[in-house]
Amino acid sequence: MGKRISLKDIAEKVGVSTALVSYVLNGKEKEKRVGKDVVKKIREVAAELNYRPNQIARSLRQGWTKTIGLIVADIANPFFGTMVRVIEDEANKFGYNVLFGSSDEDSEKLGALIDTLCNRQVDGFIIVPPEGSDAAIKRLSEREIPIVLIDRKMKGQNIDSVLIDNYTATYEATNYLLDKGYKRIAIVANKSSLNPMSERIGGYCEAMKEEGLEKEIHIELIKYEHTRADMAESLDKLLLKESKIEALIFTTNSLSISGLYYFRNSELKVPEDVAFIGFDGDEAFDFFYSPITYIVQPVEEMGKESVRLLIDQLNGSRKTVQIRLKHSFIEQQSC
Amino acid sequence: MGKRISLKDIAEKVGVSTALVSYVLNGKEKEKRVGKDVVKKIREVAAELNYRPNQIARSLRQGWTKTIGLIVADIANPFFGTMVRVIEDEANKFGYNVLFGSSDEDSEKLGALIDTLCNRQVDGFIIVPPEGSDAAIKRLSEREIPIVLIDRKMKGQNIDSVLIDNYTATYEATNYLLDKGYKRIAIVANKSSLNPMSERIGGYCEAMKEEGLEKEIHIELIKYEHTRADMAESLDKLLLKESKIEALIFTTNSLSISGLYYFRNSELKVPEDVAFIGFDGDEAFDFFYSPITYIVQPVEEMGKESVRLLIDQLNGSRKTVQIRLKHSFIEQQSC
DNA sequence: CTGAAAGCGCTTACAG
DNA sequence: CTGAAAGCGCTTACAG
């Protein structure tokens, strides 16, 4: 690599100290009252040598890096891909860059990622916390590192978070099905104690109970890293054996997609035999033979708000903020 | 933020110099022949204080950051999302982190991203270069900064690149259609002089010519940021007015998806009225009423190879390598 | 208006 | 076996 140009090179060429060069290039020539012709000369030489400041040096000196650490479950998942994209753009607007990683919903991976990002001195974090990461998040927050949780929150901790009202989302979806006359409704969720998942299940249960259908409550739990065969086993059980379920509510993007693959090869037809409500949306929903009705989170807004909250913290705000955004319900033909 | 622990804190507590602490914590206690009990004490104190090295300081001193700059067109696009994920994992294996950005196929944005990433002293770049970025890429390469292009290459420049044989991909796809008896075949491509696009068009043209169908060659060009209406206009022209096209080959992921939305609302049926070949794959392809036959690039392999080539360069390799990987053809029911 | 100097937290030749 | 010291490229109080 060709030798990089430093402040010193410019200083020498102009015949001044590096201090002066630093002032000028950082726009402080007014307050430091640098001589007019010196300013001009420095600018010229900087341009001529194509000077680029070394952010690493600057970061070391100033104590901050203008970098945000972003950890999502899996960047290959379009839901998170979009989220990351929004956060990237929004962070850029404020002069921040993003250093990111995927946790695969694994709290150990999360811990390792937090460590490396901390070592790299990110100024703050935006995190989609996996199950079991409470301790790691708490440790971060105790070190007074700015942090915003997105898509999920931790119970009992005062940490900024941005998410939808998951309880209401499934509560309304369940009522939507009940209104249409479905009674034997099941919910398909991840095995997870995370707040959004328990809220999603909670909203469904409440709606069922209010209708006096507590006996018809069916909660099917599937692990995060499930295969299509796992899904088939669960749905076979729900639809063919046990309980002749009439309607299904899926609680994540990837569960919904797995569900679609099941019905793609099934004798059972949507919505004639079974109604289907998806979560988070995906182009596949639109192209399923019976376009899928689904609950969708305002990812763009969530991304923007999370950056805004983080910037507030970086600017010294100390009050904890929990933002609940409104979900939407896209009605198509699957119910 | 609570004061971070530095080498100096450990050194003071143990009562030795920072040099010694540095040696021990970097595993050089053997070659530097540090006293056994000193090693033990340093380890203990480091653990006790929960010491974390400051990578920024280390980077400044050592001249490298163990960071890769990654620029794709749009991380929200699952094709690139998957690519980024693979690169992230692969880079981590070698101890590198990834600083990334989306160019939106805009060479000015690319230039700005390259600048900020350079200022942040990334050790090398993996880039999906947009049209018109030849100069920017060349400048990087002349500064002898390690760089690997992925998905595309620059003509006439000796820069490592990883891509498929796009010419053969569409050549074979066109022949597949010809074998099935289709004659009036059109290709839908982006307005772009980029190498893969011209190769994709070239392969199609060649196959048509070999069959004596040069008069039936229809190349429909659509801009990168097209709307569904743009696509509808193009396809209406192709299918209804001008030329009664019998088969369509789409040359990117997002063009294919837009095409699917068109046929979702069209009187024309796939494959009865028009055959459809997609590119790159997407879950939506599987759920279209007539599952889509498509050409798919080996994204995982591409990601891995690009990291490998970059690491080779970082380790001093100076020979230019152009890797061409094999595409696959997924045969479903759309032809 | 300008410069010498300290210091951010590391690593590493060098000397002993 | 161990330490004093220089230096990576910046910024910034301080002195003049």
Which helices and strands, and how do they pair?
Two copies of one chain form a homodimer.
Chain A (H helix, E strand, L loop, with lengths): L6 H8 L3 H8 L10 H13 L6 H8 L4 E6 L5 H16 L3 E6 L4 H13 L4 E4 L6 H9 L4 E4 L9 E5 L1 H14 L5 E6 L4 H16 L7 E5 L5 H15 L4 E4 L2 H12 L10 E5 L3 H5 L5 E4 L2 H16 L7 E4 L2 E3 L5
Parallel strand pairs in A: 1-2, 1-3, 3-4, 4-5, 5-11, 6-7, 6-8, 8-9, 9-10
Antiparallel strand pairs in A: 10-12
Helix pairs in contact in A: 1-2, 1-3, 5-13, 8-9, 10-11
Chain A binds a DNA duplex (16 and 16 nucleotides) through helix 2 and helix 4.
Structure write-up:
The structure is a homodimer of 335-residue chains. Chain A has 13 helices and 12 strands. Chain A is of the alpha/beta class. Chain A has 3 domains: 7-53, lambda repressor-like DNA-binding domains (434 Repressor (Amino-terminal Domain)), CATH 1.10.260.40; 65-164 and 299-325, Response regulator (Rossmann fold), CATH 3.40.50; 166-296, 3-Layer(aba) Sandwich (Rossmann fold). In chain A, strands 2-1-3-4-5-11 form a 6-stranded parallel beta sheet, sandwiched between helices. Chain A has a 6-stranded mixed beta sheet with strand order 7-6-8-9-10-12, sandwiched between helices. The termini of chain A are far apart. Chain A binds a DNA duplex (16 and 16 nucleotides) through residues 4, 6-8, 16-20, 22-23, 26, 32-35, 38, 53-63.
Keywords for this entry:
homodimer, alpha/beta, Rossmann fold, 13 helices, 12 strands, DNA-binding
